[in-house]
Amino acid sequence: MKQKIAEALRNYKKRRITDESLTPSAVLIPLFIDEGEECHVLLAERSREVGSHKGQVCFPGGTSQAGDAGLLQTALREAEEEIGLRVQDVEVVGELDDDAVVTTGYVISPFVGFVPCPYPFQVNKKEIEQIFSVPLSVLRDEANLRLDYHTVADRTFFGYCYEYEGHVIWGATARILKRFTELLTPESGAPS
How much is the pLDDT for 186? Predict the structure, then answer.
């Protein structure tokens, strides 16, 4: 599966969003292969102490800082800060389309990378409440994807949503996951 994903991403030309009114940010989509040879996506639930997106499911990531050499470095730096994933332990295999989050003013650049399993993650509790994984097969099964409403503060949003073992994955994270799984479907020309 690892080779199939790497090949699909190698042949993919990402869509970039160049709106200068949006703040550049990046996330890492950590993938790992478990002992049963199944591919999983690692996700995080944000703490209640962070400035925005409190308690929401996300990928490790954040905004670009002046010292970052580029958005890939942003994603890797943030993954190390948030979940203790060392840069040298990530095998980056590609990028996905940028995603705009107009409600908070970010443009997210997602990078896909494989990480060892098992791994001694060290969660920064100020930023991340917990980490968990979802088998890629669950995300690829369209029966597990739905359109739904979510209310945050006084605003209601409509969009894609996954639920897995009590975790609700929606918003930009669900959109990015949906694009990723579409890239891996046989109809897209990518290997299954």
Answer: 64
The DSSP annotation for 124-165 comes to -TTTEEEEEEEEHHHHH-GGGEEEEEEEETTEEEEEEEEEET
CA of residue 27 relative to chain centroid, distance: 6
What is the pLDDT, as a whole number, of residue 54? 58
pLDDT of 74: 98
Region class of 49: left (phi > 0), else alpha (psi between -120 and 50), else beta: alpha
List the helix and strand counts (H, then E) for the chain.
4, 11
Complete domains list, the chain, with CATH: 2-135 (3.90.79.10)
**Residues of the chain below pLDDT 70:** 50-55, 150-153, 186-192
- Farthest CA pair distance, the chain: 45
Sign of CA dihedral 48, 52, 58, 64: negative
Give the H or E element holding residue 182.
Answer: helix 171-183
For the stretch 58-103, pLDDT in tens is 999 999 999 999 999 999 999 999 999 999 999 999 999 999 987 7
Q: What's the CA angle centered on 28, arms 187 and 139, to 5 degrees?
A: 40
CB atoms within 10 A of CB 52: 12
Rounded distance between C-alpha atoms, residue 157 and residue 133, angstroms: 25
